[in-house]
Amino acid sequence: MASLTQLCGAIAALGAALIALAVGAAAPLWLAVPLLAAGAGQAVVSVLALHGARLPLAAVAAPLLLPTLAWLATLLVVRDAAATLPLGPMLAESALALTAAGLLARRPRTDDAPGPIAALLVLVGAAVVVAPVATIALTGTHAGAFAQPHGEHGAVLEVEEHVGH
Fold first, then answer.
1. Could you tell me the pTM of the whole model?
2. Among 42, 46, 134, 163, whose CB has the most other CB atoms within 10 angstroms?
3. 96 CB contacts (<8 Å, ≥6 apart)?
4. H helices within 27-112, ranges in order?
5. pLDDT (tens digit, 9 = 90+) per residue, 7-49?
6. What are phi and psi of 7, to 5 degrees?
7. How far is 146 from 37, CA to CA, in rounded Å?
8. DSSP of 80-97
């Protein structure tokens, strides 16, 4: 079973993965490829960390740091292309990914598995922190701009009643 630190890192990595995939889906091709690859890698790291796998530092750092490094390099080299990436979601993705990388790179002092209550509380606590960050970041992506507002699913038909027929 995963340590408590790994559980927090896994939830943060999953939030970062969702944002990287959403931003990458609408990015220019040369930015989309590393963002989508990193998003998929972040999701894999998250699942493996939830499973309790002890990942080498390189396996954690590569997918979690790649989107932030690609974004910063783009900001420094090609500013016009960087403007196509949404600032808020990229900041949120970077914060979640860097937090996850730090948590998953940390090695626990003991191999004792946490109790089920402690693990559940940590998962809920991490989700309470990551979910709003990821949700708000996703609304700032291209996909979020075209999302259907809640409560307005499907077409609304107005039927006029004809009295006296």
1. 0.82
2. 42
3. 12, 13, 15, 16, 19, 130, 133, 134
4. 29-51, 57-77, 79-82, 87-105
5. 999 999 999 999 999 999 988 888 889 899 999 999 999 999 9
6. -60, -45
7. 23
8. HHHTTS-HHHHHHHHHHH
Tokens 């783009």 correspond to 74
Q: DSSP letters along 117-150, please? A: HHHHHHHHHHHHHHHHHHHHHHHTSHHHHTPPPT
Using an 8 Å Cβ cutoff, are 3 and 104 in contact?
no
Query: What is the Cα–Cα distance from 22 to 137, expressed in whole angstroms?
Result: 9
Q: Which amino acid appears at position 57 of this protein?
A: L
User: 């750092």: which residue's tokens?
Assistant: 61
Q: Give the burial class of 77: count Cβ atoms within 10 A of its Cβ; 0-12 exposed, 13-18 middle, 19 or more buried.
A: exposed
**Nearest-angstrom CA–CA distance, 138 and 143:** 8
In the chain, the largest separation of any two C-alpha atoms, in whole Å, equals 82
**Coil vs helix vs strand at 27:** coil
Question: Phi and psi for 129 in degrees, rounded to 5?
Answer: -85, -45
| Tokens, residue 28 | 């220019």
